[in-house]
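Why does residue order matter? Because the sequence determines the fold. Keep that principle in mind as you read this record.
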Amino acid sequence: MIEQAIKTELEALTGLPVYPLLLPADVVEGITYQCVSDPPLETGLVRTSVVRARFQIRIIILNDYTRLKTLDRQIWGKWQTIRHGFIADFPV
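Structure:
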């Protein structure tokens, strides 16, 4: 599943815990993600595992804007150029 691949990759890139939607009540720093669109694939007769979904990622860091921007640049630098590649072991 793409969600597990996103979680795995974000944890590896940032060292922060990653959760869907919201941080648990006892966690103050981490990353959350959620699917904001998941259009149906129109591929004719061919089935494909390529994902067209869009995800929103939030980085929650307390009182350290510089670290937040650094993590944002790390993630963007790694994922910006992905075109028919992989996130973790999942094809995107």
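The first helix runs from residue 2 to 14.
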